[in-house]
Amino acid sequence: VKAALAAQGVDISWTGVSGDNSNAVLQGVSIKPAAEKEALPIGDVKLEGITEANGGFEIATVSSSAFERSQDGVTLNLSPVVIHGMKVPAEGSTDPLGSLMMYKSAELSNMTVKVGDKTAFSMDGLAVQITPPADGKAMDFTANTEKFNADLTLVEDPKSKEAIQALGYQNISGTVSMAGTWQPSDGKMELSKYDISVENAGTLGMTFNLGGYTLDFIKSMQEMQKKFAAQPEGADNSAQGMAMLGLLQQLSFNGASVRFDDDSLTGKVLDYVGKQQGMSGKDVANQAKAIVPFGMAQLNNPELTAEVSAAVNKFLDDPKSLEISAEPPASVPFALIMAGAMSNPLDLPKTLGVKVKANED
């Protein structure tokens, strides 16, 4: 277990072990991710249904203890994390995927964050499903929550507090849903869905598609994080920063998108801004329509300016959805994107194939 987690950039230790070859309890467990300076104590971890498999182990169920941590008046509470179908690879495995500790599913029934004695955020029913990569196929993964709640009355900034109250979002609830694939052989990582939905507001959805996210890249990144964590406070990190830039150049960009599906938020914001300025929400929308072409003109891209203006007009007239996507005709190395951002940022929208559309499925 120690070797497998170390290969994934996490150091684990425990103070004692009880049980037998089939069921065991790791006592006083602490974990330390590569990027952290200090280990985090997480209590006892129960391992049930342990069997040998190809020199390694399969564990039917892994469950942590309930967890609580307080700092600076903020308290985090987690119910036990339960993991099913965990595979612990054989130490020194030559299989490229042999170093990965995989599992089939995981659940966290509840998480709460308290500020003082008030619950600022809570989440129920987080469920993760994974189909491990096998026979050349990509790994599939999904993650969903049943519900989250946030108490925005705890926001302290006066202007933000006023806006939240005027919009009627003192307490919000919603869901999070995620899905994607990862192909270890060529490093193609696709997040096909990452939706955050807030009731009576809308859904913010994001996707991305990268190349080059291989096992070698992950290991190099973990080594880099360890070096960062080992640096004393205030040390010069410029060399590591340059090395990190060099590492990122192994990645390539295939596509990305950000989409908002409206569920009454847009109308509320327009009315709120209008009230602040002594006009109607419709007047604010018309003002925005007039400003957009001028704001876009500095990009010196008439085609994109026309597309954005048309999309914004369509959305403000009938707020359903607004989507910004980047779909280059061919994969673009990150090195090229960085160079373009420094030398000629106005050309980036063309390089990345940026498009904007409204009210389309």
- The portion of residues assigned to helices is 25-40%
Provide mean pLDDT, rounded.
91
Extended strand count: 19
Secondary-structure element sequence? HEEEEEEEEEEEEHEEEHHEHHHEEHHE
Task: Explain what the structure shows.
- The model has no long low-confidence stretch (mean pLDDT 91).
- β13 and β14 (188-198) form a beta hairpin.
- 29% of the residues lie in helices and 43% in strands.
- It has a domain at 265-358.
- The protein has a 19-stranded antiparallel β-sheet that branches.
- It is an alpha+beta fold and 361 residues long.
- The longest helix is centred in the C-terminal third of the chain and has 17 residues, at 281-297.
- The protein contains 9 helices and 19 strands.
- It is globular and about 75 Å long.
Brief descriptors of the model:
361 residues; single chain; 19 strands; 19-stranded antiparallel sheet; alpha+beta; globular
List the helices and strands and how they pair.
Elements: H1 2-7, E1 10-13, E2 16-19, E3 23-33, E4 40-53, E5 56-64, E6 67-71, E7 74-78, E8 81-88, E9 105-115, E10 118-131, E11 139-144, E12 147-151, H2 158-167, E13 171-183, E14 188-198, E15 202-211, H3 215-230, H4 238-248, E16 252-262, H5 265-277, H6 281-297, H7 302-317, E17 321-326, E18 332-333, H8 334-343, H9 348-352, E19 354-358
Antiparallel strand pairs: 1-3, 2-3, 3-4, 4-5, 5-8, 6-7, 7-9, 8-9, 9-10, 10-11, 10-12, 11-13, 12-13, 13-14, 14-15, 15-16, 16-17, 16-18, 17-19
Helix pairs in contact: 3-4, 5-6, 6-7
